[in-house]
Amino acid sequence: METDQLHYLELTELTRRIHAGELSSVQATQTLLARIEALDGTLHSFALVLPEYALEQARAADAQIRAGDIKGPLHGAPIAVKDLCWMQNVPTAAGTIVHRDFRPQESATVVKRLEAAGAVILGKLQLTEGAYADHHPQVTPPVNPWNAGHWSGASSSGSGVATAAGFCYGSLGSDTGGSIRFPSAANGLTGLKPTWGRVSRYGVFELAATLDHIGPMARSAADAAAMLGAIAGADENDPTALQSPVPDYLAAIGRGLGGIRIGIAPAWIEKAADAATREAVASAVEVVRGLGADVREIRFPDVGQLVKDWFPQCGVETAVAHEATYPARKAEYGPALSGLIELGRALTGLDYQKIILRRKDFTGRLAALFQTVDLLLMPAQGFASPTLAKMATLGEDAALMAALLSFTCPFDMSGSPTITLPCGFAETGTPIAFQFISPHLGEELLCQAGHAFQQVTDWHKRHPALDGRGTSPLEGEN
């Protein structure tokens, strides 16, 4: 295998080869660091690259593996983390200016667990300010590697771009309103948003505490399963982390979809999704039906008010998260994050309680729906591969905002786990995705369903041709 083709391997395939002695972690790490150096000056996915740190970890991994001490499926794999995850003595700005000099005294639980699993941390990935909607005016946004004129997703934009561009074999993202799913869809990745509390949030900058989910962004369901297995579980530093035992997600992925009840909501999709998205999702439905799934039409609860409620709900929680620096250092904030905080600070207690009650109502209705189906199949977002020009009008177009969030933020409000999977391409050659949603703690089934889909499709194997060596989306047929 040519060294310059290492960068697009799936993580689990990479570590299989490393563990078999076919290549080394140092070789893979050096390959990616060289690629980052050559290409990320254009794509801007990294907030900070840590070459010496990464190579030290890679050398340690190689020595352990040679000695027969293999820690698991991540051992030796170069990955990167969103720059809201603390790393000890490493600048962690969370996309802000106000925190740009912050150097935590310890690492986040998720970082500690990745390193304990033998992963190599290449650096910190860029994000929108505070993990909200827009990048700070002083931060250069990451560029979609498929098409520079198209959205790279928010807020885990750097995670999406770096993983898709072959700069890392997987990454950590966070999702409060859709920010694992949006960049996974935009960049052709597999993104796993776990159940709220399945992954510890200790040492991760808050956007909104009861909405924030931390999860993997990867090239396949198998890779996402391997990463989730390393980071999930109870944490004495985070009392909200769930105590439930962590399954071996990777071991369960081969069970297929035979007999699995999958609900689709044609009326909602017809109303809230554009034509390209509807077509791609319809094709995905036919694939899962062909895999033996029991596809059933359902009527999904109306989410119109819930989507509207997400903004003040998020705003109140963000105001709490930023209380130490806002409004005291308001001048250092960008307009989007500042506006969200002001929205939260202006909300009355009565109005907030009404939101809480409506959120509980929806969560209960969704739980009842899961008594009739095992999974839901939905678009990842309401419109396919938006351009930067289109996204620039988001704040002025309520219908556009609703179309973006309708399929994502309801499942942050309910805390439900989802997996996002590429399922086609728009006419512009940019990716389109759908998602499976499960009941709480259904990540094992999500990984199983995602893997089954990816065994008979190859959308997740297509790569942007940054160096003339990627895979054109027009090659081959699914």
Short description:
The longest helix is centred in the last third of the chain and has 21 residues, at 349-369.
Structure description:
With 478 residues, the protein is α/β, with parallel strands linked by helices. The protein has a single domain (3-461), classed as Amidase signature (AS) enzymes, CATH 3.90.1300.10. 38% of the residues lie in helices and 12% in strands. The chain has helices spanning 11-19, 25-43, 51-66, 109-116, 157-164, 181-187, 221-231, 266-272, 275-290, 304-321, 335-346, 349-369, 388-391, 398-405, 409-413, 443-455, and strands at residues 46-49, 78-82, 120-125, 171-175, 190-193, 213-218, 261-264, 294-297, 375-379, 418-425, 431-437. β2 (78-82), α4 (109-116) and β3 (120-125) form a beta-alpha-beta unit. α10 (304-321) packs across α12.
Weakly predicted, low-confidence segments: 472-478
Rg, nearest Å: 21 Å
The tally of beta strands, per DSSP, is 11
Taking the sheet with the most strands, its summary is: 11 strands, mixed
Alpha-beta content class: alpha/beta
Task: Domain count, please report it.
Answer: 1
Could you tell me how far the N terminus lies from the C terminus, measured between alpha carbons in angstroms?
26 Å
Q: What is the CATH C-level name?
A: Alpha Beta
Q: Residue-averaged pLDDT, rounded? A: 95
Arrangement of strands in the largest sheet: 1-3-2-4-6-5-10-11-9-7-8
Outline: globular
Strand fraction: 5-15%
The fold-level CATH name is Amidase signature (AS) enzymes
Q: How many helices does DSSP assign?
A: 16
Instruction: Write the CATH homologous superfamily.
Output: Amidase signature (AS) domain
Task: Note the run of SSEs as H and E.
Answer: HHEHEHEHEHEEHEHHEHHHEHHHEEH
**Portion of residues within helices:** 25-40%
CATH architecture descriptor text:
Alpha-Beta Complex
